[in-house]
Write a sequence for this structure.
C-alpha cells in the first residue's frame, strides 16, 4: 500500500522533526513497511509487526493506528512520487542509518500534487482551537467564519457545514469567544487554508464583549442611559453638525435621505474605524462643543460592522464625550444587533444613517402635511359655515325674490297700462292729424269768407295806386315816346328820320325825327 | 437667527392648529368670526409654506481630516 506507506513516512518525518531526532530513531523503514503491510487496527495487531516493541507502541501506537484507520477510508487518494515506494529496503536492519539517496528519484512536484500532499499531511493535524469570532458569513450549505487571537490578531479562516452548525446549537456572533475542533485543509483553487470545523463550543465572552459589558454596567449605574436624561431633538433643526467619514456609504445615505430641507450641514470628517478613529472622533465632538451655539443638532453616523470595527464607539472616552455634548445628539451607528455605547448615551438612537436622516426630516414632512390639512379643514369648515348662513340667506333671498316678483308684476301691469295708453295716444295722434286736415280745409274756407274784406282793401289799395297811374302823369302834360315799340328815354335811342309814336293822355301822335341834339 | 425662524415656524404651525381646532369645536361657526380666523389662517399658511419650501441643503466641511491640531 503505497499510500499508507508514504503517509507513515510523512508522519515519521514530522515526528522526528518534533522530537529533534533522526527519522529512523522514530521507526525503521522495515517497521513502517511492516505496518503498511499488516494494516493493524488495534494495539495488539500493531505489536505483531516486526520492529514494534512495547515502548514504541505506547509512544506512537495511537497515532499510527489513526493513520492506518484514515488511510483505509481514503485509500488510493494520494501518493508522493518522490518519497513513495521506499519499502524495498532490506527488512531487518534495526538501526538502518537513513533512507538511502537512491530513493529520492525526482522530488519536483506539480502544484496540485504538492497541495494534495500538504492536505494529506494536514489531515493528520486535527486540532482544538480557541479564538474570538471576528466575522460570520452564513450560506445555505456552509457557514464561513473567522476567529482571531486576542493577543496578536492572528486569524484563522474556518468553515462548518450547515447541518453541523445547526446541530452544534451555537449561534456564531462577532466578538464571541469560541472553541472549534476540526482539521486544516487547503482549498486548492485558492491555495487558501481553512479550518474545517466539526464542532463549535462557546468559550465564554470575548474580551471585547466583556469590556463592553463592564463599561455598559458602569455607565448604567451612573444613569447615563436613563430616559429622563434624553433631551428632545429640536423639531426643525437648521444647522446640523455631522460627524462621520468622508468616504463610505454612510454620508451619502444621510445626505440623500435628508431631502431638500434647505438646512445647513457642517461635516467634521473623521475615520470611524481603526486605531485612529477614537482620537479623530473625539476631536470632532470637541470641535462642535466649542461651537455649540451654532448648531441645533449633532449627528454621529457610520455603517454597521462587527463589534471590532465599532470598537471606537464603545470606548469610554468617546462615549463620555458624546454623553456630555451640549448639542442634542442623534446617533446612527450600525444596526440594532450591535448597539454601541455611544449610541446608547445619545439623546436619540436609530439604527442607520438613513434612519437618522428620516428622523430629522420627519417633522418637516409632518409640518408640510399639517399645513395642507389645516388649510383644507379651515376652508371646508368655513365653507360649511357659509353654506349654513347661505341657507338662511336663501330664505331671505326667497323673500326678496318674492318681493321682486311683486314689483315685476306691477311693472308688467304698468307696462301694459302704459302700452294701452300709448296706443290711445297713437289713436289720438291719428285723430289729431285728421282734425288737422279738417282744419286746413276750414282755414281755406276762412279765406273765402275773408275775401270780401280783402277786395275792399284791394280797392282801397287800387285807389292809392291809381294816383301813380302813368295816364295820370300823361294828363299832366307828360308824353311817352316810343320808337319801333321801345319807350325812349335818351336821344341816342333814335336816329334822324325814324318814326316816333308819341302817347299823350287822350291819344297817340305819330312824328318823324328831324334832328337829334345833345 | 436660526432660532427665531425655527420658533416662528413651530409657532405658526401651532397657531394654525389652534385655528383648525376652533373650527372643529364650533357647533355653528359664526361667519364673521370664521372669516377673521380664515384670514389669520391664510397668513399663517403662507408664512409657513414659505419656510417649508423645498430648497437645497448647504453642505460644508468645517475641518479637514488631516489638519488636526493634535
Amino acid at each position: 500500500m503505497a499510500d499508507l506507506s508514504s503517509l507513515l513516512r510523512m508522519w515519521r518525518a514530522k515526528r522526528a522533526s518534533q522530537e529533534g531526532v533522526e527519522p529512523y530513531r522514530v521507526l525503521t523503514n522495515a517497521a513502517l513497511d511492516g505496518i503498511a503491510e499488516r494494516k493493524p487496527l488495534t494495539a495488539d495487531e500493531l505489536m505483531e509487526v516486526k520492529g514494534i516493541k512495547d515502548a514504541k507502541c505506547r509512544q506512537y501506537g495511537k497515532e499510527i493506528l489513526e493513520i492506518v484507520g484514515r488511510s483505509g477510508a481514503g485509500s488510493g487518494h494520494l501518493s508522493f512520487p518522490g518519497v513513495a515506494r521506499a519499502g524495498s529496503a532490506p527488512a531487518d536492519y534495526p538501526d538502518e542509518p537513513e533512507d538511502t539517496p537512491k530513493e529520492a528519484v525526482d522530488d519536483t512536484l506539480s502544484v496540485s500534487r504538492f497541495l494534495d500532499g500538504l492536505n494529506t499531511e494536514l489531515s493528520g493535524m486535527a486540532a482544538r482551537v480557541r479564538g474570538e469570532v471576528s466575522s460570520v458569513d452564513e450560506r445555505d450549505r456552509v457557514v464561513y467564519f473567522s476567529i482571531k487571537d486576542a493577543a496578536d490578531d492572528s486569524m484563522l479562516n474556518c468553515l462548518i457545514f450547515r447541518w453541523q452548525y445547526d446541530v452544534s446549537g451555537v449561534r456564531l456572533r462577532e466578538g464571541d469567544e469560541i472553541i472549534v475542533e476540526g482539521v486544516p485543509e487547503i482549498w486548492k483553487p485558492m491555495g487558501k487554508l481553512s479550518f474545517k470545523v466539526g464542532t463549535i463550543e462557546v468559550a465564554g465572552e470575548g474580551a471585547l464583549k466583556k469590556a463592553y459589558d463592564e463599561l455598559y454596567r458602569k455607565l448604567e449605574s451612573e444613569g447615563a442611559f436613563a430616559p429622563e436624561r434624553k433631551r428632545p431633538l429640536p423639531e426643525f433643526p437648521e444647522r446640523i453638525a455631522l460627524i462621520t467619514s468622508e468616504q463610505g456609504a454612510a454620508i451619502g445615505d444621510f445626505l440623500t435621505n435628508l431631502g431638500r430641507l434647505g438646512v445647513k450641514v457642517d461635516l467634521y470628517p473623521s475615520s470611524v474605524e481603526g486605531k485612529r478613529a477614537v482620537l479623530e472622533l473625539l476631536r470632532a465632538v470637541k470641535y462642535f462643543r466649542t461651537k455649540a451655539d451654532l448648531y441645533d443638532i449633532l449627528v454621529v453616523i457610520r455603517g454597521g460592522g462587527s463589534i471590532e470595527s465599532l470598537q471606537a464607539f464603545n470606548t469610554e472616552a468617546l462615549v463620555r464625550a458624546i454623553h456630555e455634548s451640549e448639542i442634542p445628539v442623534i446617533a446612527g451607528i450600525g444596526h440594532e444587533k450591535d448597539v454601541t455605547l455611544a449610541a446608547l448615551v445619545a439623546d436619540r438612537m436609530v439604527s442607520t444613517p438613513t434612519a437618522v436622516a428620516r428622523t430629522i426630516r420627519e417633522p418637516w414632512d409632518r409640518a408640510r402635511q399639517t399645513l395642507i390639512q389645516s388649510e383644507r379643514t379651515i376652508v371646508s369648515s368655513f365653507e360649511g359655515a357659509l353654506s349654513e348662513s347661505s341657507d338662511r340667506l336663501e330664505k331671505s333671498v326667497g323673500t326678496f325674490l318674492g318681493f321682486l316678483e311683486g314689483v315685476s308684476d306691477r311693472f308688467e301691469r304698468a307696462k301694459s297700462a302704459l302700452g294701452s295708453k300709448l296706443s290711445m295716444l297713437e289713436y289720438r295722434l291719428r285723430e289729431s292729424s285728421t282734425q288737422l286736415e279738417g282744419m286746413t280745409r276750414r282755414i281755406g274756407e276762412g279765406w273765402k269768407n275773408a275775401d270780401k274784406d280783402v277786395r275792399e282793401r284791394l280797392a282801397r289799395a287800387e285807389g292809392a295806386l291809381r294816383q301813380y297811374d302813368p295816364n295820370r302823369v300823361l294828363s299832366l302834360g307828360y308824353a311817352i315816346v316810343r320808337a319801333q315799340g321801345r319807350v325812349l328815354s335818351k336821344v341816342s335811342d333814335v336816329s334822324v328820320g325814324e318814326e316816333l309814336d308819341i302817347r299823350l293822355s287822350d291819344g297817340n301822335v305819330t312824328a318823324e325825327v328831324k334832328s337829334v341834339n345833345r | 437667527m436660526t432660532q427665531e425662524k425655527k420658533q416662528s415656524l413651530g409657532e405658526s404651525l401651532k397657531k394654525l392648529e389652534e385655528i383648525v381646532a376652533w373650527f372643529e369645536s364650533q357647533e355653528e361657526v359664526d361667519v364673521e368670526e370664521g372669516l377673521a380666523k380664515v384670514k389669520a389662517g391664510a397668513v399663517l399658511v403662507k408664512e409657513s409654506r414659505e419656510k417649508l419650501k423645498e430648497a437645497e441643503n448647504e453642505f460644508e466641511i468645517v475641518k479637514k481630516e488631516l489638519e488636526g491640531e493634535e
Summary: Confidence is low (pLDDT under 50) at residues 73-96 of chain A. Chain A touches chain B through 46 residues (CB under 8 Å). The first strand of chain A starts at residue 127 and ends at 138.
